[in-house]
Amino acid sequence: MTFPRENMIYRERHCPPDEEKIYCLVPAPKGYVAPFHWPKSRDYVAYVNVPYKSLTVEKAIQNWVQFQGNVFRFPGGGTQFPQGANKYIDQLASVIPISNGTVRTVLDTGCGVASLGAYLMGRNVLTMSFAPRDSHEAQVQFALERGVPAVIGVLGSIKLPYPSRSFDMAHCSRCLIPWGENDGMYLMEVDRVLRPGGYWVLSGPPINWKTNYQAWEREKEDLEEEQRKIEEYAKLLCWEKITEIHEMAVWRKRINSDSCASRQDEQIRISFCDSENPDDVWYKKMEACVTPYPSDDVEELEPFPKRLNSIPPRISSGSISGFTSESFQQDNTLWQKHVKEYKKINKLICTGRYRNILDMNAGLGSFAAAIESAQVWVMNVVPTIADISTLGVVYERGMVGIYHDWCEAFSTYPRTYDFIHADGVFSLYKGKCKMEDILLEMDRILRPEGGVILRDNFDVLTKVNNMAVGMRWKTKMADHEDGPHLSEKILYAVKQYWVGGSESA
Prior knowledge:
505 residues, alpha/beta, seven-stranded mixed sheet, 17 strands
């Protein structure tokens, strides 16, 4: 299958038709070992798990990654911060409120091996990093092996799989995105996912082009025009330029349209997006249009960690149908109860053994909130077929997640999650796709000896259990914590260790 190179379409998600799907288990490589525990995993990855050396040569002088013996070492460098991510973050923190919980969620476009996200975790900031599968071989796989949130993705022709007003900060460090092209479409998409009052950081070309055009081997006229376009679109989007230091510039999105002079000027023509729901993004084409500010002022978020259990603005404003402040608090309490029960069966939860956790049907994010700690992070997935889109609430609580359809492959590499939680997923997808489609994808994503907890009704879990045993999962069915008479049951599972080429395979 071939796809157009225009707007990076050939690097976007493209799923095969049903008749071309392959039903098989993906083995781990021979010699596979469990990843190092956090925080050691931030700096070291076993070579046998991700056996790709090209970045150690291509990015050697930029300190991305080094090969030492049987491990990769990550010094924390990057193209724009060869002296280390911590020094770079200190520079950011001089103009952006990173240290006080105001900035909690960050989007890193073209993340490389996600060293920015890895070191921001030390500041209690959670970063959603993404990069395409391109010539920088397995960069997202490296990120996840390090224990850092990341997905395979690209800013191309399709909207990003995140709700509007999700991120406190968006970041591009020489990410090679043509921000000034396509009538500013990519900047407008960043604006959609950026929270009012949020920050956008651009590090690298064309910033400070007068000093660097020769080192970049670029024509200064081209760089000057590139920056002129970016500045022009930023003004149109109501972004105020905060600073420009060396090769880094920072803009801040204004709090509301009333504070934006360009929106009051009738001579400035602004094309606003027609969609009534800016969160409806799954496989939707990106457009060169501006997402309007909400009609009512957006309630300011509490700093993290207070925002984790505060009533999210989307709930308090009544924007999420069927949920109230009271039902939100009840949901929180319920999942604290569930997690307490989980720990009685799977005693490794919240011990540091599981670092990368996937919640396949996250709802309001209360499962993730119940296990929140510096030792874990949760990818909160809201299925695209869910009756109510709640992912915006997850972000307002200071967590990260993504939209996804579980009839398709998830945007990640094999063996990138330590633990998978799924509440009602198989009932939700009944009649939408085959049960084995979902189970095989779970197995592909899960690391050997990784844990699984499934909640669903008894009949569904009985069928799931039969398949899971055939996939060499060790399973145990348990009653609901409120008693055996409830139809909802819990299936606990562990993926057994086996590798390609072994007798067990």
